[in-house]
Amino acid sequence: MGAFMTLKLLTLTLVVFAIPSIASNKLENGAPLENGTKLENGNKLEQGDRLKPPFNNFNEVSGVIVDRTITRLGEDFYFFFTQQLNDQYPNLQENLTVNEIPTALSGSIIEVFHSRQVIYRTALSPGRRQAKDRAQDALRVVSNYIIRWQAERLYLDTFDLEHDEF
């Protein structure tokens, strides 16, 4: 009984370990899995000196206006605000976030952020016309803020320190 069990165990071990390695070896030496040219262009992936240098430019994306609105009222404000901002500053390099907090009493509270700092906040009651008017107000405030912020950053003493990351 013991010899039969040992033979069975040896057969199972052979099936589990030897056959898959033979099959994988056949795939590596056989036809390429890709259609057409090989992805490695004939080089092994381990040959790092022949590959292109890694991407090291990690500058953030600039000029993005993030929409964090929830209701139709907030979407209207975002639409009018971004449309006017893009018309006035087509090459804006600053990232802004428009955030909406819906409330039961006043409709919504709209906030415009720059570098995690609130630069404009207003309460909107329902009405498309009011959203357009408040977007114009927000544009004036944001324009003044951007000019002041860029001037402060330009004249900031960075002799021994670098600019803030945010």
Commentary on this structure:
By secondary structure, the protein is of the alpha+beta class. The protein has a domain of 94 residues. It is 43% helix and 17% strand. It has 3 helices and 4 strands. Strands 1-2-3-4 form a 4-stranded mixed beta sheet, covered by helices on one side. A hairpin with a 3-residue loop joins strand 2 and strand 3. Helix 2 packs across helix 3. The longest helix has 28 residues. The model has no long low-confidence stretch (mean pLDDT 77).
List keywords for this structure.
signal, 3 helices, 166 residues, single chain, Curli_CsgE, alpha+beta, elongated, 4-stranded mixed β-sheet, Curli production assembly/transport component CsgE
Oligomer: single chain
Order the strands across the largest sheet as they lie in space.
1-2-3-4
Described by the principal axes of the CA atoms, the overall outline is elongated
Question: What integer value in Å does the Rg equal?
Answer: 31 Å
What order do the SSEs take from the amino end to the carboxyl end, as H and E?
Answer: HEHEEEH
Helix and strand composition category? alpha+beta
Count of alpha/pi helices = 3
Report the major sheet: 4 strands, mixed
Summed over residues and divided by their number, the pLDDT gives a mean of 77
Give the end-to-end Cα distance, rounded to a whole number of Å.
Answer: 74 Å
Parts with pLDDT < 50 across at least 5 consecutive residues: none
Q: Tell me roughly what share of residues is in helical segments.
A: 40-55%
How many extended strands? 4
Tell me the β content: 15-25%
Function: May be involved in the biogenesis of curli organelles.
Pfam family, one: CsgE
Protein name: Curli production assembly/transport component CsgE
Signal peptide: 1-23
